């Protein structure tokens, strides 16, 4: 048997999905053995992959989060395009079979798919129905706008229904990148970097308003900060916070926690003229590293072909909350009556693909996006701890980010 190593960043319920998919693939044939290895959070996994590549010890497959896409695209010679791997493996690869917004994000401008969209997500609002009930809020009506969310969060805290009204994972992905897309405001010039080198616009008035609202809520103790990636999920599953904004892919752990939860769409800012627009795909994709044997590539092709099968996609979608990446799997999920029984589970797909994207909502791209997020996180954390206001935090994040982009492109 040929071993295929797969480095990933999935923990909790999503790690169980990885283990099951790999085990099922391994049992379905006798030539290849996919071996998943957990490498930490998304940023940690990407850093581990870069270090391993430099040492000549890269894995065969590595899971890289959405914002690492620009880094991987720039790593010429380090990766082998997925479209090529599939074709050489003898699989007829047809891009039109995948959801357009997702496949577009992981393709070159010329349309070649570079990585396999294993887990695509969209941020949603989860709320604790028992806490809503206790606070005198309607447990069947999640807040739709940020203003409604803040009001509900304050009521939760003031009524004593919970010690924390609201928390959120990923202030970068949800409150910055998706905030821009969903409210149809610019994150950066050049179509958010997809059409050329971006200049960040995240210090414009709508961002300042939104982040000042978050800073005020933090000061009141209504908003509790969990951390830079998915940490805040625990503040919600533990019952500490009544409302959480988090990836649709956070669903597995929320289900496992046993809390009485509901799902609403990502809130939008009611003052933004054309909101809600559309969200952009988050999550991660699988990259194939260069310089491996033909046998390994054949195995990777067989594995990715397996991953695109409708029953596998349906399992992944229903179990984890990540989106089905093929049109066939989405149609099969609809036809099975799954969304009729669980209407909220279609929310992430509808909000991602409900409207044709504008130049503000196709996604974001920069050669050093993980670094830009680190800079944003530093400034946001200083703001949340009361050391600076939102206008200063965003001005600093934009200025420092733009300098880092210049460095990265060698300007
Ligand atoms: O939690 P995930 O896997 O949906 O990922 C969220 C963000 O897109 C990561 O950058």
Automatic annotation (TrEMBL):
<comment type="similarity">
    <text>Belongs to the bacterial solute-binding protein 1 family.</text>
</comment>
<dbReference type="InterPro" id="IPR006059">
    <property type="entry name" value="SBP"/>
</dbReference>
<comment type="subunit">
    <text>The complex is composed of two ATP-binding proteins (UgpC), two transmembrane proteins (UgpA and UgpE) and a solute-binding protein (UgpB).</text>
</comment>
<dbReference type="Pfam" id="PF13416">
    <property type="entry name" value="SBP_bac_8"/>
</dbReference>
<keyword id="KW-0813">Transport</keyword>
<comment type="function">
    <text>Part of the ABC transporter complex UgpBAEC involved in sn-glycerol-3-phosphate (G3P) import. Binds G3P.</text>
</comment>
<dbReference type="InterPro" id="IPR050490">
    <property type="entry name" value="Bact_solute-bd_prot1"/>
</dbReference>
<dbReference type="GO" id="GO:0042597">
    <property type="term" value="C:periplasmic space"/>
</dbReference>
<keyword id="KW-0732">Signal</keyword>
<protein>
    <recommendedName>
        <fullName>sn-glycerol-3-phosphate-binding periplasmic protein UgpB</fullName>
    </recommendedName>
</protein>
């Amino acid at each position: 048997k040929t071993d295929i190593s797969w480095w990933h960043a999935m923990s909790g319920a999503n790690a169980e999905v990885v283990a099951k998919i790999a085990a099922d693939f391994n049992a379905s044939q006798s030539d290849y053995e996919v071996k998943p290895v957990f490498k930490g959070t998304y940023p940690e996994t990407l850093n581990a992959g870069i270090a391993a590549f430099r040492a000549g010890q890269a894995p065969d497959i590595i899971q890289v989060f959405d914002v690492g896409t620009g880094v991987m695209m720039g790593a010429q010679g380090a990766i082998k395009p997925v479209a090529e791997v599939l074709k050489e493996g003898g699989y007829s690869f047809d891009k039109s079979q995948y959801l357009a917004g997702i496949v577009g994000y992981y393709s070159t401008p010329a349309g070649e798919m570079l990585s396999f969209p294993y887990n695509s997500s969209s941020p949603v609002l989860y709320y604790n129905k028992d806490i809503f009930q206790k606070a005198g809020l309607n447990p069947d009506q999640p807040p739709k706008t940020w203003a409604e969310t803040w009001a509900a969060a304050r009521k939760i805290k003031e009524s004593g229904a919970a010690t924390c009204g609201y928390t959120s994972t990923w202030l970068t992905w949800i409150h910055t990148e998706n905030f821009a897309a969903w409210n149809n405001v610019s994150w950066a010039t050049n179509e958010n970097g997809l059409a050329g080198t971006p200049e960040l616009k995240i210090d414009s008035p709508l961002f300042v308003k939104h982040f000042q609202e978050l800073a005020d809520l933090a000061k009141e103790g209504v908003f509790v900060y969990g951390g830079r990636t998915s940490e805040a999920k625990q503040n919600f599953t533990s019952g500490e916070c009544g409302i959480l904004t988090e990836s649709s892919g956070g669903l597995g752990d929320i289900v496992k926690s046993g809390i009485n939860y509901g799902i609403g769409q990502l809130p939008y800012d009611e003052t933004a003229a054309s909101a809600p627009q559309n969200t952009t795909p988050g999550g991660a994709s699988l990259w194939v590293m260069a310089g491996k044997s033909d046998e390994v590539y054949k195995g990777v092709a067989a594995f990715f072909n397996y991953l695109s099968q409708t029953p596998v996609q349906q399992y992944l979608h229903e179990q984890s909350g990540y989106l089905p990446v093929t049109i066939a799997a989405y149609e099969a999920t609809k036809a099975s009556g799954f969304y009729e029984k669980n209407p909220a589970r279609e929310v992430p797909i509808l909000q991602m693909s409900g409207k044709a994207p504008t130049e503000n909502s196709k996604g974001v791209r920069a050669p050093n996006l993980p670094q830009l997020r680190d800079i944003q996180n530093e400034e946001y954390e200083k703001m949340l701890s009361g050391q600076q206001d939102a206008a200063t935090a965003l001005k600093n994040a934009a200025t420092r980010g733009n300098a880092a982009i210049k460095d990265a492109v060698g300007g």
